[in-house]
Amino acid sequence: MPWDFRRGGNRTASKPQSQSQPKPQPKPQENCDPSYPDFCIPPNSPDLDCKDMPRRRFKVLAPDPHGLDRDSDGIGCE
Fold it and tell me: Is the pTM of this model over 0.70?
């Protein structure tokens, strides 16, 4: 309240406390190829093509063992 502020009283009571907590980072999926972080492709899986993939336009990191990012722009199965 203004009169508390003027007297040097509780200044934090007038400000709402921020309860923001950092977002938890997603844990890397175990037994998944790190070249495809958007979803899990088991490492050492048989050769896959885009027609075998459940999604399109996903992130691809090097190395791309299945060749899903043909133009090397970091996006697979465009």
Answer: no
